[in-house]
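In this section we walk through a basic example: taking a raw amino acid sequence and producing a predicted 3D structure, encoded as discrete structure tokens. The instruction is simple. Fold the sequence below.
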Amino acid sequence: MNSQNKHELIVSGIHLDLTPSLKTFVREKADRLFRHGERIVRLRVELECDRSAAVGMQFKAKGHIEIHGPDMNASVQADECHKAVSMLIDKLDRMLQRRHQLHRVKRNHPRAVELNAEIPKAFA
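The resulting token sequence is shown next.
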């Protein structure tokens, strides 16, 4: 991670050896998510390899974003590990953009509030 980046990134492999190049690839792709500002506390990426005979070689990438508010989870499956990571980052990016857009719409459209106080009348 960069020294200017205060976000925590955890990359783990299940039934898969993580090579330094794969870790670097995930880190470079995850930098795109961290541009959303200081809202992301921690990003956890799990890469899993399924070698069952019926399916062939399948890679599953799971992402878990710890954020101020409800956490976000996503999962994708592909036949290549790098492709699964790219698809996962794209999906998480869309989720963060949608969340930001919903908060912005909510912020710009305030709801009416009922007050139980009397409003003083102006003297003419």
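Looking at the output, two observations stand out. The domain at 8-107 is CATH 3.30.160.100 (Double Stranded RNA Binding Domain). The chain has a mean pLDDT of 84. In the next section we compare this with other chains.
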